[in-house]
Specification:
By secondary structure, the protein is an alpha+beta fold. It has a domain of 109 residues: SH3 Domains (SH3 type barrels, Roll), CATH 2.30.30. It starts with a helix and ends in a 78-residue tail after the last helix.
Length: 209
Amino acid sequence: MKKLGAIGLLMLSLAALPWVAQAQQLAYASKDVHLRAGPGRDYPVVAILPAGFEISVLGCLSSYSWCDVLAGSSRGWVYAGNLTYSYQGSNVPVLTYGAQIGIAVLSFVLLDYWTHHYHDRPFYRQREQWVHRPRPPRQVHPGAPRPQPPQQIRPGTQRPQPAQPDRPSVQRPQPPQPVRPGVQRPQPPQKAGADGQRPQSPRRDGPRK
């Protein structure tokens, strides 16, 4: 009976091995990569993994951008774009094939993760600062240039006047000059006749009947 019980336990343990193998997906570093203490480039570096290093992927974020991995005796996070996986005879990036490969989706809780894996690391003392640190700004991808707003004209500057069509010059009549009291305007000179009198203008008589 004892032998049968031991054989049954052995069979159960062997049946569980494929599930364990599926839980840890084997991938490789496509280049020299940083193993970090969290899913982001601003987290402390735990180790530097050389290109081609075998990595056990335990899971990734829902976006499959960062993965929680086991590299030798070190635990940490690696950018999924630097991980390749053998899938259907080709090496594919985990960043784009993570969902098809069937890698598990994980979440990241800094205090729990650091307490389990980094309690002996120097940066563990600043864990509270890392929890409450401001989030890094989002990266803005360059796009089409935005139209420039119209320039405002500062006070004191003249705006350009639109071109006026050519018109013939018109001389405006001058207004009469006011005459000050006590001052007589000079009269124009009169032409006198032979006897000193102003000649009379000739009368125009109509036709005689």
